[in-house]
Design brief:
This protein is α/β, with parallel strands linked by helices. The chain contains 7 helices and 9 strands, in the order E-H-E-E-E-H-E-E-H-E-H-E-H-H-E-H. The structure holds adenosine-5'-diphosphate (ADP) and guanosine-5'-monophosphate.
Length: 203
């Protein structure tokens, strides 16, 4: 079972400098990785957590940049050791957030963003009630479907699985603190950075 809370009951959602964790979530294909890649390029002041995953790298992905690509056995070891802040199974692979790096960045007061799935966002909401949960929404369902297919990185049966998960994820929008519609990537990045870096918090 994925973790449901911080093990020692510690609240690490904000560091001594008042920095709280921000989470970006949304259906597969909405543009989360694109937004994160643009943030990495244009907003180096934001620290992006690098997740571990058992999924195989896509062309162009680098170990330690988009993800740490690990074996099933290594993922089991991280879970057993309590080293993941949250983790979830998504479309047949496991994904998790390494706890230590996030705790260190928050303690240093660095604007910190997690890009994770809905199950992970719920775990963070439970263990870190102060975290800001941002939902990335597509301009329309048709646009979501066309982005997922247009990416061309998954076979049809995986796309179907991700679209099914997407329908469930879209219905969860109301659980989030706010929604950003991914019409223009640069606009989303600007708004996210504002939310992450503004002192005092905007939301
Ligand atoms: P996710 O990480 O949410 O699964 P991706 O970032 O891989 O989604 O984006 C899915 C596809 O949609 C990619 O082909 C990407 O280039 C495209 N895309 C992302 N954002 C936009 C946007 N604002 N407008 C048009 N296409 C986009
Ligand atoms: P992808 O395989 O397209 O890179 O990611 C699939 C899904 O896994 C996306 O919804 C992404 O947000 C989510 N994801 C990536 N890293 C993590 C993580 O550390 N934890 C959780 N719960 N989900 C993650």
């Amino acid at each position: 079972m994925p973790p449901s809370g911080s093990p020692e009951g510690t609240d690490v959602s904000s560091g001594p400098k008042g920095r709280r964790l921000t989470v970006l979530s949304g259906p597969s294909g909405v543009g989360k990785s694109t937004v994160v890649a643009e943030l990495r390029r244009s907003h180096p002041e934001v620290w992006l957590s690098v997740s571990v995953t058992t999924r195989a790298p896509r062309p162009g992905e680098t170990h330690g940049v988009e993800y740490f690509f690990v074996s099933d056995a290594e993922f089991d070891r991280l879970v057993a050791g309590g080293e993941l802040l949250e983790w979830a199974e998504f479309a047949g692979n496991r994904y998790g957030t390494p706890r230590a790096a996030v705790e260190r960045k928050l303690a240093e007061g660095v604007p910190t963003l997690l890009e994770i799935d809905l199950q992970g966002a719920r775990q963070v909401r439970d263990s870190m009630p102060e975290a800001l949960l941002v939902f990335l929404a597509p301009p329309s369902w048709e646009e979501l479907e066309s982005r997922l297919r247009g990416r061309g990185t998954e076979p049809e049966h995986v796309i179907a699985r991700r679209l099914a998960a997407g329908r469930v994820e879209l219905a969860a929008e109301k659980e989030f603190d706010l929604t950003l519609v991914n019409t223009a990537v640069k606009e989303v990045c600007g708004r996210l950075t504002e939310l992450l870096t503004h002192d005092p918090p905007l939301h």
